[in-house]
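Hi F.,

I've been meaning to write this up properly since the lab meeting, where we talked about keeping a consistent format for the predictions we share between groups. The idea is simple: the sequence comes first, exactly as it goes in, then the structure tokens exactly as they come out, then a line or two of notes. No screenshots and no reformatting. I'm using this chain as the first example so we have something concrete to point to.
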Amino acid sequence: RSVHYQSTGSLHSDSPSSSSVSPVPSPSPRATPLPVA
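Output, unedited:
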């Protein structure tokens, strides 16, 4: 139960973190392949 709880907390914390980090690295790598292509 303890592990399950921690897993949920990590997921919940990752959810907002991923969303915030997703848009940040998205334009970074996207801008690189855009000019490279």
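Notes:
The mean pLDDT is 51.
Residues 23 and 29 are 10 Å apart (CA to CA).

If this format works for you, I'll send the rest the same way.

G.
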